[in-house]
Design brief:
Largest sheet of chain B: none
Helix content of chain B: 55-70%
Order of helices and strands of chain A: EEEHEEHHEHHHEEHEH
Number of helices of chain B: 3
Structural class of chain B: mainly alpha
Oligomer: heterodimer
Number of strands of chain A: 9
Distance between the termini of chain A: 25 Å
């Protein structure tokens, strides 16, 4: 059976792994150094990983445990490399970015916020009813497209207003934030906030305040998470090469 | 916000999946996943992602029945 190495997190070189912590399949964790960084890994059969909820939860639990004992960057689920040399060279290849990320993010946490709303119906003005009744089929179709466009613009403006409110209220307790407007019709905003541990209680209190001020919305807060959403992305060109097995 | 424990867990699991699969450090060495016979992992992840999207759509459709804040 070919053995590979599963990667959990990027740490500082001197970081100690928690004594009782084991990896996926209860395999022993070890640390692979690369200059001033190290990565936590455990052996795994090359074909032994399945993307089950159990494995995803275990991955997250291990990353959490590592992060509690030392600053850590979470590695994406499913990262399996064929040898320890490849692990070290993969870290070496992105060393500067990872080092900067560890300094920036190592002891921070992330919260996720989802804002659900009841999508509004088309307004009279958006439908433009007075102008449509006597028109032909083609005209009615085009006018319905215009109405849909106007409606979408209005919804986006409303979602943007919600996002601005959140930004104003929560922004002073966060280091960075990402947001997506209207990922679906039912989701007005999805956001991720990077927070210092010392600001967690203030952030939660600010969230509760904004939630009470928005009784028509459902605001769902999740976390704290390791700062998954804030690590520096890999350039698209590298991802394409990766997907092609280049 | 009055979400039941089960709903809370569901949202939490979706948020977790979104993070651990779609975010986090990406090592260029990931190529191993697609050049060895671990290809299945990649396929599996895509299937799971599709399942998550489907779950979210179902959840959105069921939202009116879920306790709102």
């Amino acid at each position: 059976v070919t053995e590979s190495w599963y990667v959990y997190a990027v740490l500082g070189r001197g970081a100690r792994l928690p004594a009782c912590l084991t990896g996926l399949g209860d395999a022993a964790l070890s640390s692979v150094p690369c200059r001033e960084l190290a990565v936590a890994v455990s052996p795994i059969e090359a074909t032994g990983l399945r993307p089950t909820a159990e494995n995803v939860l275990r991955h997250e639990a291990i990353v959490e445990a590592l992060r509690l004992s030392a600053p850590a960057l979470p590695v994406r689920f499913g990262t399996v490399l064929p040898s320890l040399d490849v692990v070290a060279s993969a870290i070496d290849e992105r060393y500067e970015v990872l080092m900067a990320d560890l300094v920036r993010l190592g002891d921070t946490i992330e919260f996720g916020l989802t804002v659900l709303w009841e999508p509004s119906a088309f307004s009279h003005a958006e439908r433009g009813e007075g102008a449509t009744r006597a028109q032909g089929l083609g005209t009615r179709y085009l006018q319905s497209r215009v109405a849909a466009y106007r409606h979408e613009v209005r919804q986006r403006e409303e979602a943007e207003a919600i996002a601005r409110t959140l930004e104003t209220t929560l922004g002073c307790y966060t280091l960075e934030q990402h947001r997506i407007l209207l990922p679906t019709q039912r989701l007005a905003v999805r956001a991720a906030y990077l927070v210092r541990p010392s600001n967690v209680e203030l952030f939660r209190a600010a969230f509760e305040a904004v939630r009470h001020r928005q009784p028509n919305l459902r605001l769902l807060l999740s976390g704290p998470w390791p700062p998954y959403s804030f690590v520096s992305p890999v350039p698209i060109s590298d991802q394409v090469a990766t997907a092609n097995g280049a | 916000m009055s979400i039941s424990g089960a709903e809370d867990r569901e949202v939490t699991l979706l948020e977790l999946l979104d993070r651990v699969i779609d975010h986090g450090v990406i090592l260029s060495g990931d190529i191993t996943i697609s050049v060895s016979d671990v290809d299945l992992i990649y396929v599996g992840l895509r299937v799971m992602l599709a399942s998550v999207e489907k779950t979210e759509k179902l959840q959105a459709a069921l939202e009116p029945r879920v306790g709102a804040s």
